[in-house]
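Q: Got a minute? One more chain.
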Amino acid sequence: MLNKIALILSLLFVSIFSNAQNLNTSPFTRFGLGELSNNFSSHYLAMGGLSVSLSDYNQINTSNPATYTSLLKNNPIYNVGLAGKYSVYNSNFNNEANNSSGTNIGLDNLLIGLPITKDISVVLGLSTFSTIGYDISNIELLSGDTITYNYNGDGSINKIILGTGYNIINKGDTTKFSVGINSSYLFGNINRNSSVIFQESGFYNSRIQNRTKLNGLHFQAGVHFYQQFKGKSKNDNWYYQFGTSTSFKSNIAATQDFYSYSFIYNYSVQEIPKDTTAFLEDNTGVISLPDKFSIGMSIGRNKQNKNAWTLGLQYNIHNWNIYDEKFENQTSESQNLMQLSEFILGGRITPSLDYSNKTKNILQKSTYMLGAKYASSFIKIDDKQLKNYGINIGMSFPLLSSRSLSLINLGFEFGKIGSLQENLIEENYFKFSLGFSLAPDTRYDRWFKKRKYD
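A: Always. Here it is, folded:
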Protein backbone atom coordinates (compact mmCIF):
# COMPACT_ATOMS: atom_id res chain seq x y z
CA MET A 1 0.00 0.00 0.00
CA LEU A 2 2.80 2.41 0.93
CA ASN A 3 4.67 1.78 -2.33
CA LYS A 4 1.52 2.52 -4.36
CA ILE A 5 0.91 5.79 -2.49
CA ALA A 6 4.54 6.85 -2.95
CA LEU A 7 4.43 6.06 -6.69
CA ILE A 8 1.15 7.92 -7.26
CA LEU A 9 2.31 11.02 -5.36
CA SER A 10 5.68 11.02 -7.13
CA LEU A 11 4.06 10.82 -10.58
CA LEU A 12 1.55 13.51 -9.65
CA PHE A 13 4.19 15.94 -8.41
CA VAL A 14 6.48 15.29 -11.38
CA SER A 15 3.54 16.08 -13.68
CA ILE A 16 2.84 19.34 -11.82
CA PHE A 17 6.52 20.28 -11.98
CA SER A 18 6.76 19.53 -15.71
CA ASN A 19 3.74 21.68 -16.53
CA ALA A 20 4.50 24.60 -14.21
CA GLN A 21 4.49 27.87 -16.19
CA ASN A 22 7.05 29.75 -14.11
CA LEU A 23 9.92 28.45 -12.02
CA ASN A 24 10.27 31.90 -10.50
CA THR A 25 9.11 35.48 -11.08
CA SER A 26 11.29 37.45 -8.68
CA PRO A 27 13.50 40.25 -10.09
CA PHE A 28 16.04 39.37 -7.39
CA THR A 29 16.79 36.05 -9.14
CA ARG A 30 18.94 38.06 -11.54
CA PHE A 31 21.77 37.81 -9.00
CA GLY A 32 24.05 34.84 -8.41
CA LEU A 33 22.38 31.54 -9.24
CA GLY A 34 18.90 32.87 -8.49
CA GLU A 35 16.70 32.13 -5.52
CA LEU A 36 18.08 29.29 -3.44
CA SER A 37 15.62 26.54 -2.58
CA ASN A 38 15.14 25.40 0.99
CA ASN A 39 17.40 22.51 1.88
CA PHE A 40 14.75 20.98 4.14
CA SER A 41 11.19 19.65 4.15
CA SER A 42 7.88 21.42 4.85
CA HIS A 43 8.14 20.46 8.52
CA TYR A 44 11.27 22.58 9.03
CA LEU A 45 10.10 25.43 6.80
CA ALA A 46 7.23 25.91 9.27
CA MET A 47 9.81 26.66 11.98
CA GLY A 48 11.56 29.34 9.95
CA GLY A 49 14.16 26.86 8.70
CA LEU A 50 15.19 25.63 12.15
CA SER A 51 16.62 22.24 11.23
CA VAL A 52 20.34 21.71 11.68
CA SER A 53 19.96 20.72 15.37
CA LEU A 54 16.80 18.61 14.96
CA SER A 55 17.04 14.85 14.58
CA ASP A 56 13.68 13.19 13.85
CA TYR A 57 12.85 9.56 13.19
CA ASN A 58 9.91 10.41 10.89
CA GLN A 59 11.49 13.17 8.74
CA ILE A 60 14.42 13.33 6.30
CA ASN A 61 16.50 16.35 7.27
CA THR A 62 18.97 17.07 4.44
CA SER A 63 20.22 20.29 6.07
CA ASN A 64 22.39 18.12 8.34
CA PRO A 65 23.34 14.62 7.08
CA ALA A 66 24.36 13.58 10.59
CA THR A 67 20.66 13.49 11.51
CA TYR A 68 20.01 10.57 9.13
CA THR A 69 20.95 8.16 11.95
CA SER A 70 17.70 9.01 13.75
CA LEU A 71 15.72 6.95 11.22
CA LEU A 72 14.36 3.78 12.82
CA LYS A 73 16.00 0.51 11.89
CA ASN A 74 14.05 -1.50 9.27
CA ASN A 75 11.71 1.46 8.59
CA PRO A 76 12.52 3.54 5.46
CA ILE A 77 11.05 7.01 4.91
CA TYR A 78 9.87 8.48 1.59
CA ASN A 79 9.75 12.27 1.33
CA VAL A 80 7.81 13.95 -1.49
CA GLY A 81 7.54 17.74 -1.44
CA LEU A 82 5.77 20.43 -3.45
CA ALA A 83 6.64 24.12 -3.02
CA GLY A 84 5.12 27.34 -4.30
CA LYS A 85 5.27 31.09 -3.88
CA TYR A 86 2.97 34.04 -4.55
CA SER A 87 4.70 37.43 -4.64
CA VAL A 88 3.65 41.06 -4.97
CA TYR A 89 6.36 43.41 -6.28
CA ASN A 90 6.28 47.14 -5.53
CA SER A 91 8.55 49.93 -6.73
CA ASN A 92 8.53 53.71 -6.89
CA PHE A 93 11.27 54.34 -9.43
CA ASN A 94 11.43 58.03 -10.38
CA ASN A 95 8.53 58.62 -7.96
CA GLU A 96 6.23 56.46 -10.09
CA ALA A 97 4.46 53.71 -8.17
CA ASN A 98 4.42 50.36 -9.91
CA ASN A 99 3.30 46.96 -8.77
CA SER A 100 2.95 43.49 -10.21
CA SER A 101 2.57 39.94 -8.99
CA GLY A 102 3.72 36.45 -9.84
CA THR A 103 3.05 32.86 -8.89
CA ASN A 104 5.25 29.80 -9.22
CA ILE A 105 4.87 26.20 -8.14
CA GLY A 106 6.96 23.08 -8.62
CA LEU A 107 8.38 19.88 -7.25
CA ASP A 108 10.75 20.54 -4.37
CA ASN A 109 12.16 17.13 -3.50
CA LEU A 110 11.89 13.38 -3.93
CA LEU A 111 13.86 11.56 -1.22
CA ILE A 112 14.14 8.15 0.36
CA GLY A 113 15.85 7.46 3.67
CA LEU A 114 17.16 3.92 4.27
CA PRO A 115 18.24 2.92 7.79
CA ILE A 116 20.71 0.13 6.97
CA THR A 117 21.69 -0.72 10.57
CA LYS A 118 21.06 0.88 13.94
CA ASP A 119 24.10 3.13 13.36
CA ILE A 120 24.15 3.70 9.58
CA SER A 121 21.52 5.34 7.36
CA VAL A 122 21.57 6.37 3.71
CA VAL A 123 19.52 9.03 1.89
CA LEU A 124 19.08 9.20 -1.89
CA GLY A 125 16.99 11.61 -3.89
CA LEU A 126 16.44 14.61 -6.13
CA SER A 127 15.78 18.20 -5.09
CA THR A 128 15.87 21.75 -6.43
CA PHE A 129 18.98 23.84 -5.75
CA SER A 130 17.90 27.19 -7.20
CA THR A 131 15.49 28.81 -9.68
CA ILE A 132 15.69 31.87 -11.93
CA GLY A 133 12.85 33.81 -13.56
CA TYR A 134 12.96 37.58 -13.97
CA ASP A 135 11.84 40.19 -16.51
CA ILE A 136 12.90 43.75 -15.70
CA SER A 137 12.45 46.85 -17.87
CA ASN A 138 13.68 50.39 -17.36
CA ILE A 139 12.71 53.30 -19.62
CA GLU A 140 14.82 56.46 -20.01
CA LEU A 141 14.50 59.64 -22.09
CA LEU A 142 17.64 60.79 -23.92
CA SER A 143 17.75 63.66 -26.43
CA GLY A 144 14.06 63.30 -27.18
CA ASP A 145 14.30 59.53 -27.71
CA THR A 146 12.82 56.79 -25.53
CA ILE A 147 15.28 54.03 -24.61
CA THR A 148 14.11 50.76 -23.07
CA TYR A 149 16.56 48.58 -21.16
CA ASN A 150 15.27 45.04 -20.65
CA TYR A 151 16.77 42.21 -18.62
CA ASN A 152 15.19 38.76 -18.51
CA GLY A 153 16.27 35.28 -17.53
CA ASP A 154 15.02 31.82 -16.64
CA GLY A 155 16.30 28.41 -15.68
CA SER A 156 16.88 26.12 -12.74
CA ILE A 157 19.58 24.07 -11.08
CA ASN A 158 18.76 20.69 -9.56
CA LYS A 159 20.77 18.24 -7.53
CA ILE A 160 20.95 14.50 -7.03
CA ILE A 161 21.75 13.72 -3.40
CA LEU A 162 23.52 10.71 -1.95
CA GLY A 163 24.12 11.05 1.77
CA THR A 164 24.96 8.90 4.75
CA GLY A 165 25.02 9.29 8.52
CA TYR A 166 26.93 7.28 11.11
CA ASN A 167 26.59 7.03 14.89
CA ILE A 168 29.96 7.33 16.64
CA ILE A 169 28.24 7.10 20.03
CA ASN A 170 24.86 5.39 20.40
CA LYS A 171 23.43 4.84 23.89
CA GLY A 172 19.85 4.37 22.79
CA ASP A 173 17.48 7.16 23.79
CA THR A 174 19.92 8.87 26.18
CA THR A 175 23.05 9.92 24.26
CA LYS A 176 23.93 10.00 20.57
CA PHE A 177 26.79 11.56 18.67
CA SER A 178 26.75 11.25 14.88
CA VAL A 179 28.48 12.53 11.76
CA GLY A 180 27.33 12.57 8.16
CA ILE A 181 28.09 13.68 4.63
CA ASN A 182 26.03 14.63 1.57
CA SER A 183 27.44 14.25 -1.93
CA SER A 184 25.39 16.19 -4.48
CA TYR A 185 25.60 16.31 -8.26
CA LEU A 186 24.42 19.72 -9.51
CA PHE A 187 23.12 20.18 -13.04
CA GLY A 188 21.00 22.70 -14.93
CA ASN A 189 20.70 25.54 -17.45
CA ILE A 190 20.54 29.30 -16.98
CA ASN A 191 19.43 31.79 -19.66
CA ARG A 192 20.23 35.48 -19.26
CA ASN A 193 19.31 38.10 -21.89
CA SER A 194 19.63 41.87 -22.04
CA SER A 195 18.43 44.37 -24.66
CA VAL A 196 18.68 48.08 -25.46
CA ILE A 197 15.78 49.31 -27.63
CA PHE A 198 15.60 52.80 -29.21
CA GLN A 199 12.09 54.01 -29.91
CA GLU A 200 12.66 56.84 -32.42
CA SER A 201 16.29 57.41 -33.42
CA GLY A 202 18.25 55.70 -36.18
CA PHE A 203 20.53 53.87 -33.75
CA TYR A 204 20.62 50.10 -34.00
CA ASN A 205 19.11 48.18 -31.13
CA SER A 206 21.32 45.64 -29.39
CA ARG A 207 20.79 42.35 -27.60
CA ILE A 208 22.94 39.88 -25.64
CA GLN A 209 21.88 36.25 -25.21
CA ASN A 210 23.77 34.17 -22.69
CA ARG A 211 23.01 30.48 -22.04
CA THR A 212 25.03 28.63 -19.38
CA LYS A 213 25.01 24.91 -18.67
CA LEU A 214 26.63 23.66 -15.51
CA ASN A 215 27.29 20.37 -13.76
CA GLY A 216 29.55 19.26 -10.94
CA LEU A 217 29.88 17.85 -7.44
CA HIS A 218 29.07 19.65 -4.21
CA PHE A 219 29.76 18.33 -0.70
CA GLN A 220 28.29 18.96 2.74
CA ALA A 221 29.31 17.53 6.13
CA GLY A 222 27.47 17.60 9.44
CA VAL A 223 27.76 16.79 13.14
CA HIS A 224 24.92 16.18 15.60
CA PHE A 225 24.74 15.56 19.36
CA TYR A 226 21.70 14.47 21.39
CA GLN A 227 21.50 14.20 25.17
CA GLN A 228 18.45 13.20 27.23
CA PHE A 229 17.96 13.65 30.96
CA LYS A 230 15.11 12.90 33.33
CA GLY A 231 12.71 15.39 34.82
CA LYS A 232 10.84 15.12 38.09
CA SER A 233 8.97 11.95 37.14
CA LYS A 234 9.93 8.71 35.40
CA ASN A 235 8.08 9.55 32.18
CA ASP A 236 9.22 13.18 32.10
CA ASN A 237 12.08 13.36 29.57
CA TRP A 238 14.09 16.49 28.78
CA TYR A 239 16.68 16.70 26.05
CA TYR A 240 18.96 19.11 24.26
CA GLN A 241 20.42 18.85 20.78
CA PHE A 242 23.33 20.52 19.04
CA GLY A 243 24.03 20.46 15.32
CA THR A 244 26.33 22.03 12.80
CA SER A 245 26.83 21.58 9.07
CA THR A 246 29.22 22.91 6.44
CA SER A 247 28.77 23.08 2.68
CA PHE A 248 32.20 23.32 1.12
CA LYS A 249 33.28 25.71 -1.61
CA SER A 250 32.99 23.97 -4.99
CA ASN A 251 34.19 24.70 -8.51
CA ILE A 252 31.42 23.66 -10.90
CA ALA A 253 32.22 23.07 -14.58
CA ALA A 254 30.22 25.25 -16.97
CA THR A 255 29.85 25.85 -20.71
CA GLN A 256 28.53 29.06 -22.22
CA ASP A 257 26.81 29.99 -25.47
CA PHE A 258 27.20 33.75 -25.93
CA TYR A 259 25.60 35.77 -28.75
CA SER A 260 25.69 39.56 -29.05
CA TYR A 261 24.19 41.37 -32.04
CA SER A 262 22.53 44.53 -33.30
CA PHE A 263 19.14 44.68 -35.01
CA ILE A 264 16.30 46.87 -36.22
CA TYR A 265 12.54 46.42 -36.21
CA ASN A 266 10.59 46.20 -39.46
CA TYR A 267 7.37 48.18 -38.92
CA SER A 268 8.04 47.93 -35.16
CA VAL A 269 7.18 44.24 -35.24
CA GLN A 270 9.68 42.01 -37.00
CA GLU A 271 13.23 41.86 -35.68
CA ILE A 272 15.90 42.02 -38.41
CA PRO A 273 19.50 41.24 -37.27
CA LYS A 274 22.18 43.54 -38.74
CA ASP A 275 25.62 42.81 -37.25
CA THR A 276 27.03 40.12 -34.94
CA THR A 277 29.35 41.71 -32.39
CA ALA A 278 30.29 38.52 -30.53
CA PHE A 279 29.57 34.81 -30.88
CA LEU A 280 30.89 32.02 -28.65
CA GLU A 281 29.68 28.43 -28.57
CA ASP A 282 30.54 25.83 -25.90
CA ASN A 283 32.88 28.30 -24.21
CA THR A 284 34.23 26.46 -21.15
CA GLY A 285 34.53 27.92 -17.68
CA VAL A 286 34.12 27.45 -13.95
CA ILE A 287 31.51 28.72 -11.50
CA SER A 288 32.77 28.96 -7.92
CA LEU A 289 30.04 28.15 -5.40
CA PRO A 290 30.60 29.66 -1.94
CA ASP A 291 30.84 27.76 1.31
CA LYS A 292 28.09 27.81 3.91
CA PHE A 293 28.13 27.23 7.67
CA SER A 294 25.15 26.55 9.95
CA ILE A 295 25.05 26.05 13.70
CA GLY A 296 22.07 25.50 15.97
CA MET A 297 20.87 24.18 19.28
CA SER A 298 17.51 23.20 20.67
CA ILE A 299 15.94 22.07 23.91
CA GLY A 300 12.80 20.01 24.35
CA ARG A 301 10.61 17.97 26.63
CA ASN A 302 8.30 15.03 26.12
CA LYS A 303 6.03 13.45 28.70
CA GLN A 304 5.23 9.91 27.66
CA ASN A 305 1.67 9.56 26.29
CA LYS A 306 1.03 13.22 27.07
CA ASN A 307 2.74 16.01 25.12
CA ALA A 308 6.03 17.19 23.64
CA TRP A 309 7.64 20.48 22.67
CA THR A 310 10.89 21.75 21.16
CA LEU A 311 12.43 25.24 21.00
CA GLY A 312 15.60 26.16 19.14
CA LEU A 313 17.92 28.77 17.64
CA GLN A 314 20.00 28.64 14.46
CA TYR A 315 22.54 30.85 12.69
CA ASN A 316 23.52 30.52 9.03
CA ILE A 317 26.33 32.24 7.16
CA HIS A 318 26.78 31.88 3.39
CA ASN A 319 29.83 33.49 1.78
CA TRP A 320 28.35 34.71 -1.51
CA ASN A 321 30.95 37.47 -1.55
CA ILE A 322 33.39 34.92 -3.05
CA TYR A 323 30.99 33.75 -5.78
CA ASP A 324 32.62 33.96 -9.19
CA GLU A 325 32.08 33.01 -12.85
CA LYS A 326 35.11 32.64 -15.13
CA PHE A 327 35.04 31.69 -18.83
CA GLU A 328 37.98 31.29 -21.20
CA ASN A 329 37.07 33.79 -23.92
CA GLN A 330 34.67 36.06 -22.10
CA THR A 331 35.05 38.64 -19.37
CA SER A 332 32.36 37.89 -16.80
CA GLU A 333 30.46 40.72 -15.17
CA SER A 334 31.16 41.02 -11.46
CA GLN A 335 27.92 40.78 -9.48
CA ASN A 336 29.44 42.18 -6.28
CA LEU A 337 27.43 39.90 -4.01
CA MET A 338 27.47 40.05 -0.22
CA GLN A 339 27.92 37.61 2.62
CA LEU A 340 24.51 36.24 3.68
CA SER A 341 23.79 35.94 7.40
CA GLU A 342 20.57 34.60 8.89
CA PHE A 343 19.11 34.22 12.38
CA ILE A 344 16.28 31.74 13.05
CA LEU A 345 14.04 31.14 16.06
CA GLY A 346 11.55 28.27 15.92
CA GLY A 347 9.63 25.70 17.88
CA ARG A 348 6.96 23.01 17.79
CA ILE A 349 4.47 21.34 20.08
CA THR A 350 2.52 18.08 19.97
CA PRO A 351 -0.51 18.08 22.35
CA SER A 352 -0.69 14.27 22.66
CA LEU A 353 1.89 11.52 22.19
CA ASP A 354 -0.69 8.83 22.94
CA TYR A 355 -1.08 7.80 19.28
CA SER A 356 -2.77 4.47 20.08
CA ASN A 357 -5.54 6.17 22.07
CA LYS A 358 -8.59 6.22 19.80
CA THR A 359 -10.30 8.83 21.98
CA LYS A 360 -7.69 11.35 20.85
CA ASN A 361 -8.53 13.02 17.54
CA ILE A 362 -6.10 13.77 14.73
CA LEU A 363 -5.68 17.41 15.78
CA GLN A 364 -4.52 16.36 19.24
CA LYS A 365 -1.97 13.96 17.70
CA SER A 366 -0.67 16.56 15.23
CA THR A 367 2.43 18.72 15.64
CA TYR A 368 2.18 22.52 15.37
CA MET A 369 5.16 24.65 14.33
CA LEU A 370 6.00 28.34 14.53
CA GLY A 371 9.13 30.26 13.56
CA ALA A 372 10.69 33.54 12.50
CA LYS A 373 13.81 34.57 10.60
CA TYR A 374 15.84 37.68 9.89
CA ALA A 375 18.49 37.73 7.18
CA SER A 376 20.89 40.10 5.47
CA SER A 377 20.67 38.70 1.94
CA PHE A 378 23.55 38.31 -0.51
CA ILE A 379 22.01 40.93 -2.83
CA LYS A 380 23.32 44.49 -2.87
CA ILE A 381 21.66 47.21 -4.97
CA ASP A 382 23.04 50.77 -5.03
CA ASP A 383 25.32 49.93 -2.10
CA LYS A 384 22.34 48.74 -0.04
CA GLN A 385 22.34 45.14 1.24
CA LEU A 386 18.76 43.88 1.09
CA LYS A 387 17.08 42.54 4.24
CA ASN A 388 14.78 39.53 4.36
CA TYR A 389 12.15 38.99 7.08
CA GLY A 390 9.86 36.02 7.51
CA ILE A 391 7.20 34.60 9.83
CA ASN A 392 6.46 30.87 9.55
CA ILE A 393 3.69 28.53 10.66
CA GLY A 394 2.64 24.98 9.87
CA MET A 395 1.54 21.58 11.06
CA SER A 396 2.28 17.89 10.62
CA PHE A 397 -0.49 15.37 11.10
CA PRO A 398 -0.69 11.57 10.81
CA LEU A 399 -1.58 10.22 7.37
CA LEU A 400 -2.32 6.55 7.96
CA SER A 401 -2.91 4.37 11.04
CA SER A 402 -1.40 4.93 14.48
CA ARG A 403 1.15 2.19 13.74
CA SER A 404 2.60 4.14 10.80
CA LEU A 405 5.15 6.96 10.85
CA SER A 406 3.53 8.58 7.80
CA LEU A 407 2.76 12.30 7.99
CA ILE A 408 1.37 15.15 5.93
CA ASN A 409 3.50 18.26 6.43
CA LEU A 410 2.28 21.80 5.76
CA GLY A 411 4.54 24.83 5.97
CA PHE A 412 3.84 28.51 5.29
CA GLU A 413 6.00 31.62 5.25
CA PHE A 414 4.96 35.27 5.09
CA GLY A 415 7.93 37.45 4.28
CA LYS A 416 9.44 40.53 2.70
CA ILE A 417 12.72 41.23 0.92
CA GLY A 418 13.93 44.58 -0.32
CA SER A 419 12.69 48.10 0.36
CA LEU A 420 10.88 50.96 -1.35
CA GLN A 421 13.47 53.42 -0.08
CA GLU A 422 15.91 54.98 -2.57
CA ASN A 423 14.17 53.62 -5.68
CA LEU A 424 14.57 49.96 -4.73
CA ILE A 425 12.14 47.08 -5.28
CA GLU A 426 10.16 45.44 -2.48
CA GLU A 427 8.86 41.89 -2.70
CA ASN A 428 6.14 40.73 -0.31
CA TYR A 429 5.72 36.99 -0.61
CA PHE A 430 3.74 34.04 0.64
CA LYS A 431 5.47 30.67 0.43
CA PHE A 432 3.81 27.34 0.97
CA SER A 433 5.15 23.82 1.09
CA LEU A 434 3.22 20.56 1.05
CA GLY A 435 5.12 17.40 1.89
CA PHE A 436 4.42 13.75 2.50
CA SER A 437 6.62 11.65 4.79
CA LEU A 438 5.62 8.10 3.98
CA ALA A 439 6.73 5.14 6.08
CA PRO A 440 5.74 1.47 6.36
CA ASP A 441 3.75 -0.01 9.20
CA THR A 442 6.10 -0.16 12.18
CA ARG A 443 5.01 -3.70 13.08
CA TYR A 444 4.35 -5.64 9.90
CA ASP A 445 6.20 -4.00 7.00
CA ARG A 446 9.82 -3.69 8.04
CA TRP A 447 12.79 -3.60 5.66
CA PHE A 448 16.32 -5.07 5.98
CA LYS A 449 15.08 -7.55 8.55
CA LYS A 450 16.34 -11.14 8.38
CA ARG A 451 13.42 -13.55 8.33
CA LYS A 452 13.44 -16.58 10.59
CA TYR A 453 11.15 -18.50 8.21
CA ASP A 454 10.71 -18.29 4.42
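A: Helices lie at 2-19, 42-45, 362-365.
Q: Perfect, thanks.
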